[in-house]
Design goal:
The protein is α+β, with helices and mostly antiparallel strands. The chain is built from one helix and five strands; from the N terminus they run H-E-E-E-E-E. The longest helix is centred in the first third of the chain and has 30 residues, at 3-32.
Length: 99
């Protein structure tokens, strides 16, 4: 492979790395605004029935399953590690499938 071809491949890789970094920044900004970024499954607590859903606008909301009022209760599952979350209502630990 020629020096020009190698430098072209390196430039492509640098461009790809920059794009991935920019995408990660956008995802973090979306999460900060309450938008679900679809990087894991939605959670549902088997103990108390608190579950996550996504509005038509893409906002993450929670409410109790089978509740007459489907308004967002404002509670959010807390990340424990990369794949585990804690229910904010009852403290149950849940594993989430990362997509």
């Amino acid at each position: 492979m020629s020096r020009i071809a190698k430098s072209g491949k390196k430039a492509e890789m640098n461009s790809l790395v920059a794009a991935v970094r920019e995408l990660e920044q956008v995802k973090q900004q979306a999460k900060a605004r309450g938008i679900f970024t679809d990087d894991r499954e939605l959670l549902e607590c088997p103990s108390c029935g608190l579950l996550e859903d996504v509005t038509a606008e893409g906002l993450l909301v929670t409410y109790v399953k089978d509740s007459a009022d489907l308004k967002d209760c404002g509670l959010r599952f807390r990340p424990v590690d990369e794949t585990s979350f804690e229910c904010p209502s009852c403290g149950t630990k849940l594993k989430a499938e990362i997509l």
